């Protein structure tokens, strides 16, 4: 008995060493990325500013109970993503490292590192050292594909991409008889489902199928040999209840609660979905390994690169599906149970993907299906595994050489992916850096002016209503200004219309404010300069003379083409709401590309301190 316990401890110790070692190797590029990001000051805007506000609220009387606002319902009463788990996970690092914007990026890296460690632990439990190394190769390819910008950014569509892989591996582990993986599934699945709405159907579907499989096997099939199934099932259930208490609490406290709004959204979508036919095409586009491979030669964030230019031939995707079906047949005929189970997980996930894609309505933003690239990589992993097993069974004489080639190829791929990712991470910049730089340039002078009592301001004793008029990015920097001034100790708030994105507790009536702080861009600057009692306290023009000339040239060409296309109704919006022009479905892709260049060049930005109620007058 003693010798058996010693052997188990030694086996676990060796397995843990491999997990720790490979986690360090796979996540090395993320460390490089953090160092690179620390060199550039970051002022989060839009969704990331909203994220920071909620992370800042964790542990206070205003601890968030739901996720970020989403495309659910109608403004200003839109619903949010299901839960706040990502905010809770980011909060400890945020507090420990000075509540800086960079500390959110550090927290994001820690979440992904924990996900990598969990995935490798599951792999080690399934296949020992070889399994751990194989999944490390898989993860290195996936992580390079997503890139440093995605994997360091605490944006809710990006945060779940690696935990999603853990969800898939956890389901596979449960099918293999590992009851402890139920807890991993609940933890990782809850993070995915709470953080970004598209994962609700994916995680919920897999969870439902998993429970159904367990029940059927226990009752009418061969009982599943799962040591500790009862204990781990109870643990997973309790954990799930605890993790979902905040959204339930919100549902009980508010009318309508967020869960009710989400239910209504799913039952009565605001517009017609893209349907199963379009979804099938979209799914095959996300299985186009040729486009991914060609992009991987040139870019480290090749999933994002391919996502930004959808389309292309469906033939590569069809061939991947056929090859995968063939590998399923091989695994079944050879009776490799673990491989059959992995293929079962992939098959179920593909069906759920198809359904999830069919439910998309409106513009098919790339981030709505960002999770699909990880599934493609897992498919290719399973295909390669099936091929290796087939060679070993059907040609034993060659199996030794094939195994050596496979091992060397895996190590080479792991090394190449890690080094290439690390190299690209050296030049990483913060998210929306062009907007962040401009916001950062006006925040300091604004804070100084408020502290000095400029105009209607009363220093930190005052209460300030933040407003904005933006010609380009629908107020993205306005949200950032709220967060940045709050970071500096000022009491700030927004009008009631922004109660969902900026949170209810930050709503401030003009009558209750000391002064108004207004951020204006483009043509709105001159309008605010003409208002009585207003003091301009900050101004920045992010474009140099060459960039300004380029902007004007692009503007003239965009206006000319809009008129030639019979879209004269959009001409005025070029100088007042440029982003909406780009989003208009009537605008052709070539024109959208020119507008995108205009957006990236930026806009002159100014901040004003005005008497309370100036915007309303």
TrEMBL record:
Transmembrane region positions?
Answer: 18-38, 106-124, 131-149, 161-185, 197-216, 314-334, 340-357, 364-388, 408-428
Which keywords belong to this entry? Answer: Membrane, Transmembrane, Transmembrane helix
Positions the record marks as coiled coil are none
Does the entry feature the keyword Flavoprotein, yes or no?
A: no
**Signal peptide interval:** none
What name does this protein carry? Unannotated protein
């Amino acid at each position: 008995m003693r010798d058996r316990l010693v052997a188990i401890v030694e086996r676990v110790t060796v397995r843990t060493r491999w997990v720790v070692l490979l986690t360090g190797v796979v996540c090395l590029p993320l460390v490089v990325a953090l160092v690179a990001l620390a060199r550039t000051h970051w002022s989060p805007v839009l969704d990331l500013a909203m994220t920071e506000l909620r992370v800042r609220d964790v542990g206070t009387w205003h601890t968030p109970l739901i996720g970020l606002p989403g495309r659910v319902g109608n403004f200003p009463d839109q619903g949010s993503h299901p839960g706040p788990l990502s905010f809770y996970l980011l909060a400890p690092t945020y507090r420990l490292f000075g509540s800086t914007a960079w500390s959110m990026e550090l927290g994001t890296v820690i979440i992904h590192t924990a996900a990598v460690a969990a995935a490798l632990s599951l792999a080690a439990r399934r296949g020992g050292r070889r399994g751990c190394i194989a999944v490390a190769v898989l993860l290195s390819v996936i992580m390079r594909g997503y890139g440093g910008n995605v994997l360091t950014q605490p944006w809710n569509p990006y945060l779940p991409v690696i935990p999603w892989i853990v969800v898939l591996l956890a389901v596979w582990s449960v099918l293999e008889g590992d009851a402890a993986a139920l807890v991993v599934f609940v933890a990782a699945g809850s993070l995915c489902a709470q953080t970004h709405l598209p994962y609700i159907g994916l995680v919920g579907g897999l969870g439902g199928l998993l429970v159904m499989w367990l029940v059927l096997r226990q009752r009418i099939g061969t009982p599943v040999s799962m040591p500790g199934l009862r204990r781990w099932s109870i643990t997973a259930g309790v954990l799930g209840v605890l993790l979902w208490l905040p959204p339930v609490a919100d549902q009980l406290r508010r009318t309508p609660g967020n869960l009710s709004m989400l239910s209504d959204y799913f039952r009565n979508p605001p517009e017609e979905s893209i349907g199963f036919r379009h979804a099938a095409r979209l799914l095959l586009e996300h299985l186009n390994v040729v486009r991914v491979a060609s992009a991987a030669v040139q870019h480290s964030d090749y999933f994002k690169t391919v996502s930004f230019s959808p389309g292309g031939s469906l033939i590569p995707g069809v061939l991947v599906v056929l090859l995968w079906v063939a590998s399923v047949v091989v695994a079944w005929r050879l009776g490799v149970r673990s491989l059959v189970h992995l293929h079962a997980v992939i098959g179920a996930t593909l069906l759920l993907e198809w359904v999830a894609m069919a439910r998309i309505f409106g513009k098919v933003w790339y981030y709505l299906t960002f999770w699909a690239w990880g599934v493609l990589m897992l498919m290719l992993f399973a295909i390669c595994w099936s091929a290796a097993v087939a060679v070993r069974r059907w040609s034993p004489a060659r199996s030794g050489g094939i195994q050596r080639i496979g091992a060397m190829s895996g190590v080479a791929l792991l090394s190449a992916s890690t080094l290439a990712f690390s190299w690209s991470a050296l030049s990483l910049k913060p998210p929306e850096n062009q907007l962040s730089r401009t916001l950062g340039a006006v925040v300091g002078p604004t804070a100084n002016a408020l502290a000095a009592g400029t105009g209607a301001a009363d220093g930190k004793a005052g209460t300030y209503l933040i407003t904005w008029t933006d010609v380009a990015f629908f107020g993205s920097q306005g949200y950032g200004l709220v967060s940045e001034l709050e970071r500096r100790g000022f009491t700030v708030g927004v009008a009631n219309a922004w109660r969902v994105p900026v949170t209810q507790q930050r709503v401030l009536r003009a009558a209750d404010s000391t002064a108004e702080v207004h951020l204006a861009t483009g043509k709105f600057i001159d309008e605010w300069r003409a208002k009585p009692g207003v003091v301009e306290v900050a101004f920045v023009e992010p474009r140099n003379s060459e960039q300004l000339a380029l902007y004007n040239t692009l503007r003239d060409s965009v206006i000319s083409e809009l008129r030639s296309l019979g879209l004269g109704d959009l001409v005025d919006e070029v100088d007042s709401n440029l982003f909406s022009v780009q989003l208009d479905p009537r605008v052709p892709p070539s024109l959208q590309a020119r507008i995108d260049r205009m957006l990236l060049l930026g806009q002159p930005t100014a901040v004003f301190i005005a008497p309370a109620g100036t915007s309303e007058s």
